[in-house]
Amino acid sequence: MTKPSKGLMLMLEITDLTVGYSTTPIIERLTVALADGRLTGVIGANGAGKSTLLKTIVGLIPVRSGRILYHDRPIRENQRQIGYVAQHAAIDTTFPITVRETVLLGAYPRLGWGRQPSRQDRLDAEDALAAVELTDLGERPLTALSGGQRQRVYIARAILQDAPLVLLDEPFAGIDVHSEAVIMAILRQWRAAGKTVLVVHHDLNKVRQYFDDLLILAPGRGVIDHGQVNQVFTPANIAQAFSPDMESLFNAPETEVAQ
Prior knowledge:
259 residues, alpha/beta, four-stranded antiparallel beta sheet, 23% strand, disordered C terminus
């Protein structure tokens, strides 16, 4: 099993995980461990199982074999401890709901059956909107927002949920530079608060800048490598995960984003 740095407490342990929609597995015998308080990127070519991994952790796809433990307990017993921000394409952006109502959905995982958000939940929702710089748009329909603004709304919902484990599936895809900087600042705040954050990411130029650890997957091969970014984000690993001509990436300058 790949392990995080010595001294870090394990939050999530995945052992011999096999998942697939049909007879051909998308993920086969994947083993990896994630530690508390780390920002981990997940990269790999299309079909490597990046989104499938997140959906399996959150319980949207059944496990064929293997196990997923959260603090040494089965993940199915701890689903309320997981925040999940899906891909844009997986979210119905036409549903008639306001920005504020969307953020308040983050309160429901910790509420009992039939209970409504409290006054404190509503105050916390306003704080979450302020954190993503959308205070003035609370009553606006979600459908009226830009892609970057909508993604910030989903981050605000995750802020309100306040889960210790947060999974994000390509949160920076197709959004504006300002929204990306705002979201990245929130991810760093979560890490500083001790949360474990797992992010499917597509922009390899920003891997070193954004993440503490990296999980590299390849179609049909599973885990190429996992560990600290400065140790595993190498030309050899990227060539295995994508193609040999990706080596030129390592000589490209990275885009500066506010820390």
